[in-house]
Structures are given as C-alpha cells and as structure tokens.
Automatic annotation (TrEMBL), chain A:
GO terms for molecular function: GTP binding; GTPase activity. SUPFAM superfamilies: P-loop containing nucleoside triphosphate hydrolases. It comes from Naegleria gruberi. It is a lipid-anchor. Its main location: membrane. This is Rab family small GTPase.
UniProtKB/TrEMBL annotation, chain B:
It comes from the Eukaryota. It comes from Naegleria gruberi. Transmembrane segments: none annotated. This is RabGTPase-activating protein. GO terms for cellular component: cytoplasm. The keyword ATP-binding does not apply. The keyword Thylakoid does not apply. Residues 32-278 form the Rab-GAP TBC domain. InterPro entries: Rab-GAP-TBC_dom, Rab-GAP_TBC_sf.
C-alpha cells in the first residue's frame, strides 16, 4: 500500500510497564494479559491517516531492562517519535522517567517528538502516580502526555496518532527535514500535499485522562 | 523399563570415548526423542558428569554429592537475615551494635544493606518469572517458580559482575523441565530421587553459551553477513537491500537458543544437538572462548534459508515480521541436518528446500 510518509517510532520505558501491550493493541487490536518478555527489540507497523494523508508508522518496541540498553539505544537515532511509558501503579517506573528522558535526548535527534504515556489506567484502585503528577512532569520537560489502558484500548490510538500529528506539523513548518532519513521520516510515493484543503486539520488535543 | 536400560548402558560402559560418541550421534540425529535420561545425557555434554577414561562413571556419585553440598553451601551463604546477625551479636556481648545493625545505616558492611539489595534482586527476578510461559502450567506452579527464583538468585549473587539478565530464566526453564520429566519417570531410581535443584543450578552455572559473555553483534553479523553470503547469496543481498540489521532478530534467536522460535519440546531437540556438538562445555574450566557456537550459527542460516521464499517476496516491514515471528515448523530436525551438512561443506550453497508458501 502506498503512503505519503513513513514515520519511525520507538517505545521506551521500564520493564513491565506495558510497552509491548500498547503496540499489540495498536497494531492487532488485542490485549495479551501476560505478554512475553521483550528480548532486544520487537517490531510493528500500521497505516494511519493524518489530515487525509496515508502515513505508515514503523514502530520499534524495546526491551526495558538495563542489560539491553546498549542495543536499544541505537534505535533512538532515526526515530521521529518516541513513546515514553510508565506504569501508573508502580511509582518507581515514574521515578525512572528522568533517566529515560536523558538517555533519549542524548541519543536521538533534536526534532524527535516525545509522548509521555502513563499506562494501566484501568487499574485505578492501585494507582500510585496521579494524573496531575504525570501532567506536571510532561509540562516541565516539554512532552505531550496521555494516560492509556492497553487492556481496555483507551487512548491507545490517540497516543500514536497524536504523536504523528505533531510530527506532521513539524514537517509542514519545516522543522523536520524530510530529505534526511536520520530524522525518522521517509517520503513515500503517494502525494504528500494535503489532498482535501477544505478539510480542517484535526490538531485538537485528545482528552488526556482515560477511565474518567 | 527403557530408561533403566538406557541408564545401565551408560553406567556399564567402560569405553567412555565411544559412549560419548554414541550419545553425540544420537543427539545430532534427533534420536534422543523421548529419552527419559535426557537430563543425565545433557549433564555429560555440559561437563557436569565428566567421562574420563580411567574411572568411567564410577566417580559420578561423589561428584553429584559434592555438587549438592556446594549448592547447599551457596544457599546458606546468600541467605541473609540481619535479625539473626543481630541476635548472634547481642547474645555474645549483650549489646547491639547499632552502627552495624541499624537498618538505616549507610555503612557497606551493614547486613541490612545487603538484605535490601537481595530483596531488590529477588523482586526483579520474580517480576520476570510471572511472565514465563503463561500457557504452560508446569511453569506456573509456586514450587517451580520458587526453584527458578532461588537458582537465578544464587547464580546472580555468585556472578555479580553479570548478575541477572532478562532471558536467563528462559534458558533455565527448559533445563528444569527436562530434569523434572526424567525425575518423574525414574523416581524408583535412588540416584535421581532427591534435591535435583542443585544439579540444575550447576547446569546453568556452566551454561555460558549465550550472549552475556559473547558479543552478540559479532555473532549476528557473522551469521547474516558472512555465512549467509556463502550459503544463500540471493537472500543475503535481499536482506541488505531491505536494511535488515542482523541483531534485531538474531539477538533473540541466539540469546535464547531458539526457545522463542519453536515449541519448548522442539527447542529441546535443538538443544540436544547444540549441547552434544559443543565439546567446549566439557573442558575442565569452561570459558567463553571454549564455546563453539558454529552449530547455532549454521542452524540460524538454515532457518533463514527455510523461509527464503517469503522473505524474498516481501518488503522490509514484512521481512521483519517474518523474522520476529518465525512460522511453525513440522520437524525442527531438518535444521540440524542442514546445519551439519552445511558446516561440513563450508564453500557450497545450501540446497533448495521445499518451497514455503
């Protein structure tokens, strides 16, 4: 299938926060309660539509454990978007965000869009990180933010799509140079101009809270 | 009783060289099948039950007892209960040394700090064990989970430069399964009856075949760039054109010795061959340089070759998907056959296989 753009994503965050489950929900529309541990990296792809353009998302899902870090780091380069995931029921995964962020910023290109994702918001009774804390962290570090539930398929589409819309805006504003593949964007063979000029671009912010 | 016969054959054998050869041939030809003494055979391959010319198998009992005692010692060594240390201290001179035994003390020698470290390590291991073979009831029981936890914990403590790495539990679990199956079948045999866990631990202590010690990039590159170019140049060029980096899929293939690519029983058949093939395990002191992974490399190439049709017909996204999710295979033994054949003739191409549609 032809596409206008290909965006490369990377999913990062501590082990067990639900990175692979988010990907599986996004690409296959299903949830696996006990997911295999990711060894190294996993891969997924899906076509989405942004402002009338077909955009192919190529997603690298990385292993969370420290011992894989040297391998997973190489995937930052050449990524246009990153989903930085923590588990709202495990506070330590929230504490580790700073390290993840430093790592991401150090090894990625400066135009990479980072989406902070507080996953497992279906487990509200076991919540250890409030929505406000997540939002505050995101604001402080200039990230976009959503809470998701891979289990209930809440905000999963939004997390991937919203990131893509921001990348698309950056392309339109000339912030991302599409001729340089290191920026994580590849031009496909379908037209890249907005096909329907009457259609309003939908850049409105999705509601960040899920389950609420 | 088949297993007892098999076992007696080994015990009675006075010619250890031909015994070892016989076992290797059996394993490489996939004829270990449902053997109920596979755990003993693996121990021979991995050098835990060494065969030497003079003594044959006579020293095995002593060796096993020795290994068991060693494991017991390791359990004791790493079982830290600061309260006990405290109690022991206070009974001696009736004063609790607060600087030493205060849970909040930052001192390195504070038993509490190691206690906290240990429970942190245990937590990490338990978190991964929760996700181990969810569809396989054997691995879900508390008993098995506890065995695995203890073995991994002690191994990590003993090898703290490496410590626990994700995937180790998936290397350990098929070994545990094999030992358990054998133990059930052979329970009349006193030899295998009690406290098998120490032997299992010994196995993993020596199992340094995976990527922790060997640079995974090197192996992955050798497989996809050097070996595949010689064996299937067309596929080699295609994977380059599709910009498939070798370590993306080979990291998992090699690190878990194909445990994720096949059903656990099929993986065990591959392990029969891999363990029997690599004499390095049987060296006096196993070091990573002794471990010859060439069979693993050739099996990987055979696996690539097996799905060549669908790879050649696909774009890079689909290629990656195919490589990350290997299709079901009827008989994994074809990979061993082809790997052996291919290794013996380093400069010839792989023969074409049944096309995969």
């Amino acid at each position: 299938m032809s596409y206008s753009y290909l965006f490369k994503y990377i999913i990062i965050g501590d082990t067990g926060v639900g990175k692979s489950c988010l990907l599986l929900q996004f690409t296959d529309k299903r949830f696996q309660p006990v997911h295999d541990l990711t060894i190294g990296v996993e891969f997924g792809a899906r076509m989405i539509n942004i402002d009338g353009k077909q955009v192919k998302l190529q997603i690298w899902d990385t292993a969370g454990q420290e011992s894989f870090r040297s391998i997973t780091r190489s995937y930052y380069r050449g990524a246009a978007g990153a989903l930085l995931v923590y588990d709202i029921t495990r506070r330590e995964t929230f504490h580790h965000l700073t390290t993840w962020l430093e790592d991401a910023r150090r090894h990625s290109n400066s135009t990479m869009t980072i989406m902070l994702v507080g996953n497992k918001c279906d487990l509200d009774s076991r919540r250890a990180v409030s929505y406000e804390e997540g939002k505050k962290f995101a604001q402080q570090h200039d990230l976009i933010f959503l809470e998701t539930s891979a289990k209930n398929d809440e905000n999963v589409e939004e997390a991937f799509n919203y990131t893509a819309r921001i990348i698309n805006e950056k392309i339109e504003k000339g912030i991302i140079d599409v001729t340089n593949e290191m920026n994580g964007v590849k031009v496909g063979n379908a037209p890249t101009a907005t096909t329907n000029l009457l259609e309003k671009p939908t850049t409105s912010e999705p509601k960040g809270k899920c389950c609420g | 009783m088949l297993q007892i016969k098999e076992f007696e054959q080994i015990i009675m054998s006075r010619d250890s060289t031909s015994l070892l050869q016989g076992l290797c041939t059996k394993s490489l030809s996939g004829n270990l099948g449902q053997s109920t003494i596979r755990s003993i055979i693996w121990k021979i391959f991995l050098g835990l039950l060494p065969l030497n010319k003079k003594e044959g198998t006579d020293h095995w009992n002593a060796k096993v007892n020795n290994d068991r005692a060693r494991y017991e010692d390791l359990i004791k060594k790493h079982e830290i209960d600061p309260r006990k240390t405290q109690a022991a201290n206070s009974s001696e001179d009736d004063v609790v040394d607060v600087t030493f035994c205060d849970p909040l003390s930052q001192s390195q020698s504070n038993p509490w700090s190691e206690f906290f470290e240990n429970s942190e390590l245990e937590k990490v291991i338990v978190q991964d064990l929760k996700r181990l073979y969810p569809e396989y009831p054997f691995f879900r029981t508390e008993e098995i989970q506890n065995y695995l936890k203890r073995m991994l914990f002690i191994w990590s403590k003993e090898n703290d430069d490496i410590s626990y790495r994700q995937g180790m539990h998936e290397l350990l679990s098929p070994i545990l399964l094999v030992v358990y199956r054998d133990a059930q079948d052979i329970s009349k045999y006193e030899y295998m009856m009690t406290e098998e866990e120490d032997q299992k631990l010994k196995l993993i202590l020596n199992l340094k075949i995976d990527a922790y010690d060997l640079p995974i990039f090197k192996i992955s590159n050798r497989i996809q760039y050097l070996l595949l170019e010689k064996k299937d140049p067309e596929l080699y060029r295609h994977l380059i054109k599709m910009a498939i980096e070798p370590q993306i899929y080979l990291l998992r293939w090699v690190r878990l010795l194909f445990g994720r690519e096949f059903h656990i029983d099929d993986a065990i058949i591959l392990w029969d061959a891999i363990f029997s093939d690599c004499g390095g395990f049987r060296a006096e002191k196993v070091s990573s340089s002794d471990i010859d992974l060439s069979l693993v490399e050739h099996i990987s190439v055979a696996m690539l070759h097996y799905i060549r049709k669908s790879l050649l017909a696909s774009d890079s996204s689909y290629c990656l998907k195919r490589l990350m999710r290997y299709p079901p295979v009827e008989d994994v033994h074809i990979f061993i056959e082809q790997a052996l054949e291919s290794r013996s003739r380093p400069n010839s191409l792989l023969p074409s296989m049944e096309p995969l549609t």
